[in-house]
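Posting this for the archive.
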Amino acid sequence: MKRLMLVSALTALAAQPLSAAVIDQSSFFDGGGYPIQLSQIASAPGGNGRMQAHSVTAGQTGLLSRVDLLVAEGNGTGALVLGLGYGLVTDAGYSNAVSLVIDRAQVASYTDLNNGGFTSIDVSALGFNVAAGQQFTIHLSAAADSITNRFGWGFGNDIDGNGTVGAFADYAGGDNRVSEDGGSSWSVTGYDRAFRTWVEAGAVPEPASWAMLIAGFGLVGAMARRRRPAMA
């Protein structure tokens, strides 16, 4: 009976469903007939390239499994580099916790963007976990190249002067900042960049399953003590 209780608890825990990745935060493109505006990301000699970062506030707890970016390649042959770090980017700078090099062939073209395409990046292997309400930052830079390596990150803009942004809803969970000196200092742009984050929450066992498991381990321990041979 006691063994049955432990086996039942373990079975119940194993049966808990794993949560699929879901969209957590979004500042994404809604074209509405407007061409996409791009803000430059570029490498430069000596490392003083143009970098961009957007702060995000997580809505769910779990593994950050994917980041979708409305980003397009420009000239050059080098890669795009995506960094993730906890906390907000500040005036003084920003340090990445983990980063991922994205081959240029994976990045959409400007034509792709205007046809509804985007660059989807699997970041699950980075093991970057977030908690609901926690702030973190998406950082984009261009890898060094034999010539200036450029990309563009989509943003909303009132391009026809009628007061309609026509690209993104305002994102209240963080700001976009740009660095012109390789990351030594950062300034707020006032325009949110286009991104979408996906979080995989992971299974949390039901309280009843935890209670059964604890009780089962307790009974197994009691049985082990009872069967222990007496010391001579």
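Residues 207-227 form the longest helix (21 residues). The longest strand covers residues 62-69.
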